[in-house]
Amino acid sequence: MAKAIQYTELGGPEVLTLNEIPDPIAGPGQVTVRIEAAGVNPIDWKLREGIRPTPPFTGPRGTGTDAAGHITGVGEGVDGFRIGDPVVFTGAPGAYATDIAVPAEKVFARPARVTAGVGAALGIPVGTAYQAIRSLGIRGDDTLLIHGASGSVGQAAVQLAALAGARVIGTTSDARAERVADLGGEPIAYGDGLVDRVRSAAAGGVTAILDFAGTDEAIDASLELLEDRDRIATIVRGPDAAEFGIRAFGGGSPVPLTAQQETWRLEAIPVVLALLAAGRFSVELGERYALEQAGEAQRASREGAPGKLLIVP
Ligand SMILES: NC(=O)c1ccc[n+]([C@@H]2O[C@H](COP(=O)([O-])OP(=O)(O)OC[C@H]3O[C@@H](n4cnc5c(N)ncnc54)[C@H](OP(=O)(O)O)[C@@H]3O)[C@@H](O)[C@H]2O)c1
Question: Which atom, in ligand 1's list, is nearest to the CA of 215?
Fold first, then answer.
């Protein structure tokens, strides 16, 4: 029997239980994956706590969406995968598990150089960062301000924007500033005086802003620093974005992602896998947790533990 972390009611980490589940079978258009590592994302605990709305429970619900492992079964109509292939997938609910069936279009071949841990860290952070940068049309003549540059999404965005040739200024705690600098960003401390610090760093002004922090300070500073509201986007304050006149990509926004934005989120994965294989992208891994420690892992994510936390079944 396979095993998965599940819950049947909203609540704290204690609602998560480790259950035996029937071994998944690869249906038409699907593959099955033996999971070697799953990434912990803030949305996992936001959904569990009811911070982001979900439909009523109709049975046990899995958690986690991003993981890496190897193929154990190939369903009808699937080309390009063979049993044993190392892969990465994203957008598959129930990834905190030993085994899972996933639609083949969400699964990508994992180059030998990319470990399962690094592969599991890609999905949501890399997809979101890449889509946000494409949506804002970040180019070589941009000066981009990123709020929350030291987090998983932020680190991906710093690197992708720098690769596009943009100048990147990223807010961070002092403890995480060096990491932002290592990735090609110019770290600036968040907190009192943020607007002045950005102005003295970028005398010509910033031309685009991405908010991955969601604090009032990040929103207020963004509105003060850039008149062009179409070039300010948040991924956290979706419900309030219209009131501020800025763009939102998910994050509780009543406006769903467009088909193009969804396409970019998936396209990001092979793009970054190729960058990783070429040694041109870096992923910071954090603590690893056993499947039965999933609640502890989500608590650590909520408390802002550094690096991508992993569940290792
Ligand atoms: N809309 C979407 O589709 C989408 C997708 C992915 C993520 N998200 C959301 O985006 C946010 C970031 O996700 P993540 O995976 O990158 O999380 P993460 O890895 O936990 O990073 C959190 C970031 O927030 C920063 N931060 C913490 N307190 C702050 C403060 N007071 N002021 C400014 N920055 C502060 C952290 O900086 P330090 O560590 O340096 O303090 C860190 O850079 C989460 O809220 C997540 O739910 C939304």
Answer: 32
Question: Tell me, what amino acid is at 214?
Answer: G
Distance CA 113, CA 78 (A): 25
Q: Which atom belonging to ligand 1 lies closest to the Cα atom of 173?
A: 40
- Residue range(s) occupied by CATH 3.90.180.10 in the chain: 2-122+283-312
Q: Taking each helix axis as running N to C, give the angle between helix 123-136 and helix 259-277, from 0 to 180 degrees, rounded to the nearest 10.
A: 120
Contact residues of ligand 1, CB 6 A cut-off: 41-43, 46, 124-125, 128, 147-148, 150-154, 171-173, 176, 190, 212-215, 218, 235-236, 249-251, 304
**Ligand 1 mean position to 234 CA, how many Å?**
11
| Closest-lying ligand 1 atom to the alpha carbon of residue 191 | 32
Q: What burial letters (b/e) apply to 141-158, b meaning 16+ CB within 10 Å? A: ebbbbbbbbbbbbbbbbb
- CB neighbourhood size of 250 (10 A): 20
Burial degree of 206 (CB within 10 A; 0-12, 13-18, 19+): buried
Residues of the chain with CATH 3.40.50.720: 127-248
Residue type present at position 147: H
| pLDDT confidence of residue 276 | 98
pLDDT of residue 107: 98
Class for the domain spanning 2-122+283-312: alpha beta
Query: Do residues 41 and 74 lie in contact, with contact meaning Cβ atoms separated by under 8 Å?
Result: no
At 177 the pLDDT is 98
What integer pLDDT is reported at residue 109 of this predicted model? 98
Distances, alpha carbon 3 to alpha carbons 71, 102, 115, in Å: 17, 16, 22
- Stretches where the chain sits below pLDDT 50 are none
Give me the CATH code for the 127-248 domain, please: 3.40.50.720
Query: Which residue has a Cα nearest atom 13 of ligand 1?
Result: 153
